[in-house]
Amino acid sequence: MDKTIETIMSSILPILVAGLKVTIPLTIISFIFGLIIAIVTAIAKISSIRLLNLLFSGYVWIFRGTPLLVQLFIVFYGLPKAGIELNAWSAAITTFSLNTGAYASESVRASILSIPKGQWEAAQSIGMSYWMSLRRIIAPQAFRICLPPLSNTFISLVKDTSLASSITMVEMFMVSQRIAARTFDPLLLYSLVAVIYLLLCTVLTYLQGKLEKTSSSYV
Fold first, then answer.
1. CA-based nearest residue to 43, from 52, 32, 34, 31
2. What is the pLDDT of residues 127-176, one digit of tens each?
3. From start to end of 86-155, where are the E strands?
4. How far apart are the first and last CA of the chain?
5. pTM for this one?
6. Domain residue extents for the chain
7. Which CATH superfamily is domain 2-216 in?
8. Fewest CB within 10 angstroms: 31, 76, 170, 171, which?
9. Cα distance between residue 180 and residue 186, in whole Å
């Protein structure tokens, strides 16, 4: 028992440091880029320009239809064969952003389409352009609608970053793997990192509820 407690106490700090230095920054950066991609994709898919619609629909189809781990391997290990070399950080951010953008774009698109068509018509009747109507009338309402699914996407991304260990990124799971290899106690170490992920996602879920409650008060 003493050895177990000693292992836990000596392992918590390195895992948390990896979380602060790698897991959390990787999640935030990837989500920001992914959200930008999602908005652009959603607008392109509801536009009347057929070529744009087809291109972005193809992008969503590919990234939603293939495993994230395979995408990471293609970007980090496969692209160098085509002359495109990315370090682990760049490869992870690129892959997570594109994957997040593909999934989040459907939430954004559905939120925009859920706004009654009459509001578009009303905005245009008072002289607003398409982009002004979208920015001032449609986007604020769509944001409140897509907030829950986007929050869920963010929380899922926190867990998905553990896959970055497969491309040599020293995030929380990689640190737990290294300690487990040294202590020969994989059950304890993997359970410990699982609890840390669980606590982090629990806090994010609580904040999600607060954010949703705050946003709904402005309706």
1. 52
2. 888 778 888 888 888 888 899 999 999 999 999 999 999 999 999 999 99
3. none
4. 54
5. 0.92
6. 2-216
7. MetI-like (1.10.3720.10)
8. 170
9. 5
